[in-house]
Design goal:
Order of helices and strands: HEHEHEHEHHEHEHEHEHEHEHEHEHH
CATH superfamily of the largest domain: NadA-like
Radius of gyration: 19 Å
Number of strands: 12
Bound molecules: 1,3-dihydroxyacetonephosphate, iron/sulfur cluster
Number of helices: 15
Strand order of the largest sheet: 2-1-3-4
Amino acid sequence: MFATVQPPNTINSIPNDLFAAIRELKKDLNAIILAHYYQDSDIQDIADYIGDSLGLSQKAASTNADVIVFAGVHFMAETAKILNPDKLVLLPDLEAGCSLADSCPPQEFKAFKEAHPGHLVISYINCTAEIKAMSDIICTSSNAVKIVNQIPQDQPIIFAPDRNLGRYVAEQTGRDLVLWQGSCIVHETFSEKKIVQLQMQYPEAEIIAHPECEPAVLSHAKYIGSTTALLKYSQQSQSSTFIIATEPGIIHQMEKAAPDKKFIPAPAMNNCACNECPYMRLNTLEKLYLAMKNKKPEITLAEDIRIAALKPIQRMLEMS
Ligand code: 13P
Ligand code: SF4
């Protein structure tokens, strides 16, 4: 899927106590482990920092570690590498991609941009380095509204690649955004009908949702926000039961922070586990250990793309 082809790590000589072995390697390498909330619970438990896309890029921008082990998906680790060209950035499974990033191929996006001259390009961080390099400002789900609100009213804007987040931001800001029609397979899988049925079963529950969900699902949400915002809301709210319309990996931190509250994952349309991100879940504790032991797979990218992609990320960090 990605340009760099590296031989996979072989699963041999995995120690019994992986947690201890990873801690040891962390010291030897002067490494930091950054994990997204959608990772398996054991990866979250060994991480030095767990966060949403904005928090993770801020942490990647400020770390003094020599090695960044990124327990997340490719675009996140790539962002860390863009910010830290001299550090070794490891991704436990190089195939951990993103359907949303894949929904915006660079050549088609270039033509889309050319068809809308004079537009400022704001791209959601869930995109490849090539798309970032074609963008003016990057945003995440936690700062998209804030960033669009800082753009002069008469400046037309392209928002890419997520149409659901784009629609939500347009609603919140009252701006007429030109949307690239990309989406996330995980957040589009939630069934409005099943969520409404769950709400009838648990009338006291609050539905909270990520803005990557479709408008029909968002219309039932008491609160909409990034993964970090959802976690904070679930702690602060007086409610004791929540229906969670985002990837259920976040529930691990919700339960840790509020053990007496009940968190119900929003169901998918089919009777499948498709509300779990198949890319995020490619990373395992074993692969994380092997990546640190063998110092691969590492993220690499062409310097011209890196430099072009850095500018809009830095603008985001300044405007957040
Ligand atoms: P946030 O981390 O910004 O909440 O986004 C969720 C997501 O889909 C990451 O891929
Ligand atoms: Fe991409 Fe969706 Fe997975 Fe996030 S949850 S990494 S947007 S596929």
